[in-house]
Write a structure and sequence with these properties.
The chain is α+β, with helices and mostly antiparallel strands. The protein folds into two domains: about 1-50, no CATH class; about 50-83, no CATH class. It is built from three helices and two strands. It has a two-stranded parallel ribbon. Keywords: Thiamine pyrophosphate. Belongs to the transketolase family. Pfam families: Transketolase_N. Its cofactor is thiamine diphosphate.
Length: about 80
């Protein structure tokens, strides 16, 4: 079943819809702080990139099910320090 455009589907059910970049905490916080209190439910669509911020994981489908091991964990943590 095609769910695009997702925001329009939620709006059709009477929801207040906000979207943000889910890998950017400032974007997420901004959306949460800006939620409207109109007496109807809010939906947040957080668009994300799997593995964002880790060069050897981001954009690589095999990491959908793979678990980092040994040195990969250390490399990933090092790359995430600056995020």
């Amino acid at each position: 079943m095609n769910t695009d455009p997702l925001a329009d589907k939620w709006r059709a059910f009477g929801m207040e819809v906000s979207e943000c970049q889910g890998n950017d905490m400032a974007s997420v916080v901004s959306v949460i702080e800006g939620l409207k209190q109109e007496g109807k439910p809010n939906v947040i669509i957080a668009n994300t990139t799997k593995g964002a911020g880790i060069s050897f994981i981001q954009g690589r489908p095999e990491w959908h099910h793979r678990v980092p091991k040994g040195e990969e964990i250390a490399l990933a943590l090092e790359e995430l320090k600056d995020e």
